[in-house]
Design goal:
This protein is an alpha+beta fold. The protein has helices spanning 14-22, 27-30, 114-141; strands spanning 2-10, 34-39, 50-57, 60-72, 76-82, 86-97, 100-111. It has a single domain (2-141), classed as START domain (Alpha-D-Glucose-1,6-Bisphosphate, Chain A, domain 4), CATH 3.30.530.20. The protein has three helices and seven strands; from the N terminus they run βααββββββα. The chain starts with a strand and ends with a helix.
Length: 144
Amino acid sequence: MARFTVTLQSSMAVGDAFAYLAAFERAADWDPGVAEAQRLTTGPVDIGARFRIVSRVLGRTVPLEYRITRFESPTLVELSAESGTIRSVDTITFSPSAGGSQVTYRADLRLKGAIGRVADPVLGRLLSRIGRRAAAGLQRALNP
C-alpha cells in the first residue's frame, strides 16, 4: 500500500474547510491531477454521496467513483473508491487552529492482487509526486 499524508494550515474556519473538501466535486479546482470531477448524487453531502473523479496518471486518464464512507461534520470525511485493479481511501480531518483550521489529508492507495505487492515501491513514489502537487493546490484553495 502507498500512503501520502500532508497537514496544512487554512485561514478558513473548520466548518468552512470541511464543507469545501467534503464536496469532493471541487477536487478539480485544487488538484492539478484531476481532469474531471462531478457529483453523482443529489441531496446533502453525507455518507453515501458519490463522486466521479477522472485523474491523469502517467499520460492516461483513470476514472474512479468515490463514495463518502465516514462523515463526522465538521471534523472528518472519508472517501473510498474501488475498481478492478485499485482501492483508494482518502481521509481528511479538520481541527481548529489559530487563525482558522488545520487540515490533514491522507491518501491510501493499493493495487489489488499480486501486482500490488510488487508495484508498491513504485506506486509509493508516484503517489508522493502526485500528492505534493495536489497539496500545493489545496494550500492555495484553503487560503483564499
